[in-house]
Amino acid sequence: MIDPKRIVFIHGSDSSGQTYKATLLRDIFPGMQAPDFTGGLPERMAQLGKVLGTETGWTLVGSSLGGLMAALFALQHPNQVRKLVLLAPALTLPGFAMSLASPIAIPTIIVQGTQDAFIPLEPTRRLAEKVFLNLNYIVVDDDHRLHKTAQELDWKNLLA
């Protein structure tokens, strides 16, 4: 059984911890964390580091820029992360490709829409396949926000 206190939702760039997906997940996993992040990527990563500290067993759910943040944290601290669920992650931004050292075996699920106008599907998939050795890449008929898909996903199984 997953500990909701070890689940962190990381929102995108123009969003907050009160977003639709965070609220949906909090309803399923009471006690889950969904902090607000501000500033540029380095500031946000520092804020995430303070939230996660040195504890282990984290399940990180990141949306868009939050997906990039979750992936970067996992690359830098693989022993602290139990699982990654990345929703339309912004992996093609320069901060990710430049940080690649070696692939990681953390179980990772990526959900991306075919109608995503912000994050390119195929370049993101190719990059993810190089980085995540234990990857399940789910392509859905949805846009970048994944609102329709978020309602339909079996979150308990995804995060198990």
Secondary structure layout:
Blueprint: E1 7-10, H1 20-28, H2 41-52, E2 58-63, H3 65-76, E3 81-87, H4 94-97, E4 108-113, H5 121-131, E5 135-140, H6 147-152, H7 155-159
Parallel strand pairs: 1-2, 2-3, 3-4, 4-5
Helix pairs in contact: 2-3
In short:
Helix content is 37%, strand content 18%. The chain has 160 residues and is an alpha/beta fold. Strands 1-2-3-4-5 form a five-stranded parallel beta sheet, with helices on one face.
DSSP strand tally: 5
Helical fraction: 25-40%
- How large is the radius of gyration? 14 Å
Element string (H = helix, E = strand): EHHEHEHEHEHH
Percent of sequence in beta strands: 15-25%
Number of helices: 7
Could you tell me the CATH topology label.
Rossmann fold
Arrangement of strands in the largest sheet: 1-2-3-4-5
Taken from the alpha-carbon principal axes, the silhouette is globular
Domains, number: 1
What is the residue-averaged pLDDT?
94
CATH evolutionary superfamily? Alpha/Beta hydrolase fold, catalytic domain
Measured between the Cα atoms of the first and last residue, the distance is: 7 Å
> What is the CATH C-level name?
Alpha Beta
Unreliable stretches covering 5 or more consecutive residues: none
CATH architecture title = 3-Layer(aba) Sandwich
Biggest pleated-sheet summary? 5 strands, parallel
Structural class: alpha/beta
